[in-house]
Amino acid sequence: MADVDLDVIQIAGADNEGWRVLEQAHAYHLMAAKDELPPQWQVTESLLRRCPNLLCVSSSGAGYDTIDVEACTKAGVAVVNQAGGNAVSVAEQTIGLMIAVSRRICEQNHKLRTERGYSREDMMGHEIGGRILGLVGVGHIGTRVAALAHAFGMTVLGVDPYLDAAEIARRGAVPVTLDELLGRADIVSLHCPRTKETTGLIGAEAFGKMKPGALFVSTARGGIHDEEALFEALSSGRLRGAGLDVWSAEPPPLDHPLLGLDNVVATFHTAGVSHECRFNVAKIAAEQLQVFLTGGRPPRLVNPEVWNSVTQRIRDANLL
Q1: Which residues are in the D-isomer specific 2-hydroxyacid dehydrogenase catalytic domain (predicted)?
Q2: Count of alpha carbons within 13 Å of 19, Cβ hemisphere only?
């Protein structure tokens, strides 16, 4: 697009230049990781007031924790994410965490490197094949996880308030209530966004409803599950293990209680960090911004209710 200028803002050390660029910008593409992007560059009411030309903000991932969507909607600014671009990578790591926890792979690796005199039977784990998997969220990633789980002969249950029963079934899961899912699943895996409704969704009460000896996995967002309650469920032996890619604070402190448990496999929000995923997400983002800047409606619009006011602002600014 010959008539579009692209500027890259340094997130540290060049604030004056960054604000000079951003105050003139019509579109702003920013990191999705809240703990990695300095607060001044996150999209808030304050930033929107300072940058009145903004028409569209674009998250670099499926999540948009660095964007105040409600403030954008009030300001007539479109918000887009790259939902689906990370589905393959996150789904693969989800299955990897299930296997690693169930077969105790990380424990085996550590013992082989540090100890002798134990038997192979001391490290005996369980197959995931034939187990019941419960998906909390059956969007792009949940659907992909369901497909992979079926290849292992798993029964897949699903709950998603944004989908009706027929659509959940079409995506490869048996539709159930959350309580039924918690009570039946051998493995509970989170794939829902972090919203006001889902923050703290899986706490002590939910862990208490899970089957004794079940596994818990999350590649969704930190804050959806209660880390203290999960520690209690694991250290008491009620749950057999957990695979965690997301944390309330990222990275978690080295002395985090969950990191001290052998039955926890922990990663640093890397489920979507693969070469293929990063390329795919960048390509989708570029294509969406091209659609927007040439007058089209982007396909991954987070706040569709704002579209009429955004198009009016585009006309008022004589950009097309």
Answers
A1: 37-303
A2: 9
Q: CA-to-CA distance for 238 and 215, rounded, in angstroms?
A: 10
Expressed as residue numbers, the domain containing 288 is 15-81+275-317
Residue of 144, 240, 269, 313 marked catalytic:
269
Residues in contact with 298: Cβ distance below 8 Å, sequence separation at least 6, in sequence order: 56, 78, 80, 288, 289, 291, 292
User: Any idea which of 40-49, 143-152, 292-301 has the lowest mean pLDDT?
Assistant: 292-301
Q: SS3 of 108, please?
A: helix
Query: Do 261 and 234 form a contact (C-beta atoms < 8 A)?
Result: yes
**Active-site pick, 221, 225, 240, 313:** 221
Quickly count: other Cβ atoms within 10 Å of residue 71's Cβ. Answer: 17
How confident is the model over 170-179, as pLDDT tens digits? 999 999 999 9
250 in catalytic set = yes
Residue 295 banded pLDDT, cuts 50, 70, 90: confident
Q: Pick from 266, 283, 301: which residue ends a domain?
A: 266
Number of folded domains that form the chain: 2
Euclidean distance between the first and final Cα of the chain, in Å? 13
